[in-house]
């Protein structure tokens, strides 16, 4: 499978990366080289093979459903959470208007 | 007195504890080395005051007769992938410019709890994506090593932990943290003549470490010898309830159990790692490594890892797929860069911010990842790659019936000149061909220096072990280290 400029533009839009036509064109051969190369995986007989989901067997742990269970990562950390925001107002993240 | 910057972790810890010198003296010596290291571009942020404050705390504890910890008074460098409370952390990216975490990663906190102190944050490939340290938004790290041909060509320290590798080999710090997703500890360790360990997946918490590919990322130590790696890994590792993939297992005392006696051990030599085009000097070093392990009492056995050839292409689907998802959080809303063109809406802001803030290699991988996860291609690429990953891991499981540890080269070549592979991402990816299989299988692995090639550049040998058997890997590494007697250092041209 290979991609063309139109498909690269579509991927860029799915990936939320603004890309000019020139940049898309430049990326076409780069992506195709990599995709051609990974194509060799198709040679591998994977009949009856399960896709890997966990590299080291481990059981799923769930934390207690308690707010603020860990003082560093629980609730009541609003100021820390907002400290690095490009725009924060009234205790919220500020973003451009979404609905007219 | 020996120059303090020549000392490793163990020598510093024991010297501080025994009163041969103070932690402050050690901190001052390394601060001076770091301050004079700008031509290497290894440090993104220097924290000399922080290093001295922590050193003074250690000296005060000693005066009171308290326990100083397994790394008491040892100043280290911290790869910029680890969030450090109050110190800018960017993963060498523009998109995280100005990000100052309000929390500490578990691995770095564990190190401070063990008595270590921080000299600063180390440059790296942007978001750990790269094998040459040429993708940082803050410029390339220059290896302290140069070819012995008399030229001054700037060489690659490897990547992604290139700042770490350069800093440790240039004696700017006795040790530093690295992270390994597909070889990012082992390859730069090999390129710079130092020792680096990637532990079993889950040994070190990923909490507070900026994510690249979550099913692969694993932190580990990079230091000058095996014993120092054993000490530092012991300090970094441990169960962390904040990381759901953290191993809830006892951390053995790797340092105490170090032994280079390999009697009764079988060392596997994977025949598929003898690839066309591998440098003959690398093959020679591999032969030499076999002999050293035999001398240490081990039996050498031939093994087969039949899916080796497919590990790298599988990796270059799985890692970008996970990266495209992990890096979705960089959108200009919560932290870092925001690019808001005039009159733009939310979607335009995301796209402009990410276009502005990500480097070319990061964009390439996010694009590949988005493509292989998109409707219509998911099964053909992603599911297929995950099935191949199962087969790669099964190869190793079958190999463990025949051997206890595997010996292989770390990389197919020694370090190369910066810029020489610029237009060739695929050739760059091939650098990790020997490192990636162990990453896909989550196995502990390390690189130890074994000598210099004809150009005077370091070469490394890789050891891969069974899950949770860091000790077996470290002991085989020690057997090589003792016999290789590697003591070469780069000539100090940068200050």
Automatic annotation (TrEMBL), chain A:
<dbReference type="GO" id="GO:0016740">
    <property type="term" value="F:transferase activity"/>
</dbReference>
<comment type="subunit">
    <text>Heterotrimer of A, B and C subunits.</text>
</comment>
<keyword id="KW-0648">Protein biosynthesis</keyword>
<dbReference type="GO" id="GO:0005524">
    <property type="term" value="F:ATP binding"/>
</dbReference>
<dbReference type="GO" id="GO:0006412">
    <property type="term" value="P:translation"/>
</dbReference>
<dbReference type="InterPro" id="IPR036113">
    <property type="entry name" value="Asp/Glu-ADT_sf_sub_c"/>
</dbReference>
<dbReference type="GO" id="GO:0006450">
    <property type="term" value="P:regulation of translational fidelity"/>
</dbReference>
<dbReference type="Pfam" id="PF02686">
    <property type="entry name" value="GatC"/>
</dbReference>
<comment type="similarity">
    <text>Belongs to the GatC family.</text>
</comment>
<dbReference type="GO" id="GO:0070681">
    <property type="term" value="P:glutaminyl-tRNAGln biosynthesis via transamidation"/>
</dbReference>
<dbReference type="GO" id="GO:0050567">
    <property type="term" value="F:glutaminyl-tRNA synthase (glutamine-hydrolyzing) activity"/>
</dbReference>
<keyword id="KW-0808">Transferase</keyword>
<protein>
    <recommendedName>
        <fullName>Aspartyl/glutamyl-tRNA(Asn/Gln) amidotransferase subunit C</fullName>
        <ecNumber>6.3.5.-</ecNumber>
    </recommendedName>
</protein>
<keyword id="KW-0436">Ligase</keyword>
<keyword id="KW-0067">ATP-binding</keyword>
<comment type="function">
    <text>Allows the formation of correctly charged Asn-tRNA(Asn) or Gln-tRNA(Gln) through the transamidation of misacylated Asp-tRNA(Asn) or Glu-tRNA(Gln) in organisms which lack either or both of asparaginyl-tRNA or glutaminyl-tRNA synthetases. The reaction takes place in the presence of glutamine and ATP through an activated phospho-Asp-tRNA(Asn) or phospho-Glu-tRNA(Gln).</text>
</comment>
<dbReference type="InterPro" id="IPR003837">
    <property type="entry name" value="GatC"/>
</dbReference>
<keyword id="KW-0547">Nucleotide-binding</keyword>
From TrEMBL, chain B:
<feature type="active site" description="Charge relay system">
    <location>
        <position position="79"/>
    </location>
</feature>
<dbReference type="Pfam" id="PF01425">
    <property type="entry name" value="Amidase"/>
</dbReference>
<feature type="active site" description="Acyl-ester intermediate">
    <location>
        <position position="184"/>
    </location>
</feature>
<keyword id="KW-0067">ATP-binding</keyword>
<comment type="function">
    <text>Allows the formation of correctly charged Gln-tRNA(Gln) through the transamidation of misacylated Glu-tRNA(Gln) in organisms which lack glutaminyl-tRNA synthetase. The reaction takes place in the presence of glutamine and ATP through an activated gamma-phospho-Glu-tRNA(Gln).</text>
</comment>
<dbReference type="GO" id="GO:0030956">
    <property type="term" value="C:glutamyl-tRNA(Gln) amidotransferase complex"/>
</dbReference>
<feature type="domain" description="Amidase">
    <location>
        <begin position="31"/>
        <end position="474"/>
    </location>
</feature>
<dbReference type="GO" id="GO:0006412">
    <property type="term" value="P:translation"/>
</dbReference>
<dbReference type="InterPro" id="IPR000120">
    <property type="entry name" value="Amidase"/>
</dbReference>
<comment type="subunit">
    <text>Heterotrimer of A, B and C subunits.</text>
</comment>
<dbReference type="GO" id="GO:0005524">
    <property type="term" value="F:ATP binding"/>
</dbReference>
<keyword id="KW-0547">Nucleotide-binding</keyword>
<dbReference type="GO" id="GO:0050567">
    <property type="term" value="F:glutaminyl-tRNA synthase (glutamine-hydrolyzing) activity"/>
</dbReference>
<keyword id="KW-0436">Ligase</keyword>
<dbReference type="InterPro" id="IPR036928">
    <property type="entry name" value="AS_sf"/>
</dbReference>
<dbReference type="InterPro" id="IPR020556">
    <property type="entry name" value="Amidase_CS"/>
</dbReference>
<protein>
    <recommendedName>
        <fullName>Glutamyl-tRNA(Gln) amidotransferase subunit A</fullName>
        <ecNumber>6.3.5.7</ecNumber>
    </recommendedName>
</protein>
<comment type="similarity">
    <text>Belongs to the amidase family. GatA subfamily.</text>
</comment>
<feature type="active site" description="Charge relay system">
    <location>
        <position position="160"/>
    </location>
</feature>
<dbReference type="InterPro" id="IPR023631">
    <property type="entry name" value="Amidase_dom"/>
</dbReference>
<dbReference type="GO" id="GO:0016740">
    <property type="term" value="F:transferase activity"/>
</dbReference>
<keyword id="KW-0648">Protein biosynthesis</keyword>
